[in-house]
């Protein structure tokens, strides 16, 4: 500024004597040294005459590890790498005489640090990490061949990300075209891997699930031969995800071979058992085909097709004398866990009241015992006695009444006729008289 003011003062004095006024201002050069560096060989300051272009010095400043790229009109532009003038370039003629210029050196590194980070796995300690290296601009760098160590892990290479996959091997090449500082992180792979088993039970709890196994790197693992169990299902094998297992896809069988160098959880694959429901008329008449069912899947029972007048269908029971547990068309599931098993359901018949029971007793009492076998008649008399007791019991429940009618009806239907030549009472009496006359005649002739 002092130089500018002096120049202006001289110009004013000269103008007073009629002299031609020429304005000039200084152009200075700032080395803009990178941190920790020293710049040498800077050009000397210059004077710039207003209205006259100025050729900048061709002198090239020097800084260890950096390449000079040119000059910028501000330190911010220089640090951003923006070049306004090259060495030996032209400074424009139309510049303000009152505005001195400082030009700042623009630098570009020609050496780049390459740093190695051990990047230990959780709980691990890494040793033998290589020392940093320097890469020259445009020149490929051979990375250190030193192999770091971490107990329980194998070194897989170097990555530019702490969580990335290996991009460079030990002793590998960092390309000459990659001109930038670089931090490399060690990539580790476990030497052993845990293989765990998940019962993945569709319902209830799976038992007999194998204990975890350990697989060594590079050595195939024979999976456990243990077969887990789950009520209502058959074990088919193992899958590497629950979704795959639930879709029924088997990837490994029991005692199969697992070869991947990675930890895994294996999920049991299950197939639902199937079973058959058989329908028993339980004193009724008619036919019904069995129905097929799958464990774990609800399915409606076949609509009742049996009849048993005067009884009405009340539902299905799991025993011949039990109460109705399932209504007509009831949706059932998991009646048995046995694969291929059979479940019998018995029709339950409901009768109106004691009037019906008494009518049935009267009907049975009118039967003649001599027409039937002793065994079948004995069964009928036993049921008849029970029915009379229920009829006489003022506190008998509807279920007791229904069962009495039902059992007496069944006993009546099971009566077996005698194998006589004559099947009526009158015919039997006539036969008896004939036998008597024949026997009397034979005796008379013998003693006459």
Give a description of the structure:
Helices cover 21% and strands 29% of the residues. The protein has 448 residues and is α+β, with helices and mostly antiparallel strands. It has 5 domains: 2-109, Ubiquitin-like (UB roll), CATH 3.10.20; 112-190, Immunoglobulin-like (Sandwich), CATH 2.60.40; 193-272, Immunoglobulin-like, CATH 2.60.40; 274-350, Immunoglobulin-like, CATH 2.60.40; 354-413. The strands form 10 sheets. The chain has a 4-stranded mixed β-sheet. A 4-stranded mixed β-sheet has the order 11-9-16-14, with no helix packed on it. It has a 4-stranded mixed β-sheet with strand order 18-17-22-20. Helix 5 packs antiparallel against helix 6 (398-413). The radius of gyration is 55 Å and the shape is rod-shaped.
Explain the layout of strands and helices:
Elements lengths: L1 H15 L7 E7 L8 E2 L5 E4 L4 E2 L6 E2 L2 E7 L2 H5 L10 E2 L9 E9 L1 E7 L8 E2 L5 E4 L4 E2 L6 E2 L2 E7 L13 E2 L7 E9 L1 E7 L14 E4 L4 E2 L10 E7 L2 H5 L10 E2 L5 E9 L1 E7 L10 E4 L4 E2 L11 E6 L13 E2 L9 E9 L3 H12 L8 H19 L5 H16 L11 H23 L1
Parallel strand pairs: 1-8, 9-16, 17-22, 23-28
Antiparallel strand pairs: 1-3, 2-5, 4-7, 6-8, 9-11, 10-13, 12-15, 14-16, 17-18, 19-21, 20-22, 23-24, 25-27, 26-28
Helix pairs in contact: 4-5, 4-6, 5-6
